[in-house]
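Subgroup meeting minutes
Present: P.N., E.W., G.H.
Scribe: E.W.

1. P.N. recapped why we're keeping a running log of single-chain structure predictions: easier to compare across weeks, and new members can see raw inputs and outputs side by side.
2. G.H. added today's entry (144 aa).
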Amino acid sequence: MMSYDEYMRSVIQPMRTELTSAGFEELLTPDDVETKFENMKGTAFVVVNSVCGCAAGLARPAAVYSVQNSEAKPDKLYTVFAGQDKEATAKAREYFTGYPPSSPSFALLKDGELVYMMERHQIENRPLEVIASDLMEAFKKHCG
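Output recorded in log:
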């Protein structure tokens, strides 16, 4: 019989793969986050992944579409998984100054400083194309 943890990993894995197969690097521990975010040079697009329906139907597809179709691209693509890699997610959120925890959400960092944030309430109930367009505008403004 499969344990709960094994079951959850099997259910969650496709949600992780949707981003990693598009070039996002998973940050699984607080040390991973600190290593990538401290002394950061350039831009990093961070997706706070989640198991919720708006992550599946809107956030992940919009994130993938925007990085694949934007002329201006972030230098690095990272993801943390809220509710799964709790400590890594909490560490990443320390960099999202002025914003409460929100998942899914998107953050754009430049030289380690938050320059753009899209919270869950800005993702839910909005067309995927509008979300992706907003992300690509942020890339255009802050990347390159």
